[in-house]
Task: structure prediction
Amino acid sequence: MSALFEPYTLRSLTVPNRVWMSPMCQYSAEPTGPDAGTAGDWHLAHYAARAAGGAGLVLVEATAVSPEGRITPGDLGLWNDRQARALRRITGFIGERGAVPGVQLAHAGRKASTDAPWRGGAPLDAARGGWRPVAPSAVPFAEGHPVPHELTAERIDEVVRQFADAARRALAAGFEVAEIHGAHGYLIHEFLSPLSNHRTDAYGGSFENRTRLALRIVDAVREVWPDGLPLFFRVSATDWREDGWTPDETVRLAGLLAERGVDLLDVSTGGNTPRASIPVEPGYQVPFAARVRAETGLPVAAVGLITEPEQAEKIVAGGEADAVLLGRELLRDPHWAHRAARTLGAGPVRLPDQYAWAV
Result:
């Protein structure tokens, strides 16, 4: 038996295996007009391939809760019902293939309004379809990036409502897992980290204040998300700087998230500053997930340069994580789960009839 291919149950939802697709932006939605942020044929083909390829959970990319929350003009959104209707075609196909459809709800904060990475990823001004980003403090992400608007208390309340509204639309769109994006230097992470949060009000300074927005958003989403369906939270466990967000704070936050109904922590690292020394190597982020699981009991998913079946099996079988989330490896090989099952002797993973006869 392979631990990687055992089903996993959270609340009333059972995921058929522990090979999950990490949210990865495609920057391929219509950028302007009434269809801005709406999924199209590319998104259907992309996510359908990974569902047919055997991934147990397919997490759709960072999907903005508001227009200003997009990383690029080409990001998906869930700020209107048209976007939700377009996503139903995708969630329906994922479910038909025996996989679970999930979505990551996001706000890019001060890292919004940039170009697609294959065009350099530079900040966009209004003449090129950009807008001025918002953040906890008027501190730009990096040299050459705009100074963001500092969010007022009233605007913070609006952001909380936007996350809840997007969660309602995600449910209407057919998603069965919702993940709140609190990592990689985007808005929630910006509030968590003292590198980007210089506020002196109820949202800045102490750990309790810096985590206030994250906990408010979790409460608001959990209130509208069904009790029988799981809620995930993605966190950057460290800023890789001593003066930033720390692993100790991640463990503290994990306990608070568990109390509020978060079912699994998706543990990544970094992204909030370009000035960090990150020791990138295979599995370099797994120890952070393992620590959260060991010290809090909260289920976790591990990410980061997990590329080989034996490596993923060891992580799950050894209790370092409850599942692995594959990113670029699934871009390179949509059928990674099938290959891993054969390698590990786990027996065949579900294959569409159109492919199974050829095996």
In short: The chain has a mean pLDDT of 96. Residues 111 and 155 are 17 Å apart (CA to CA).
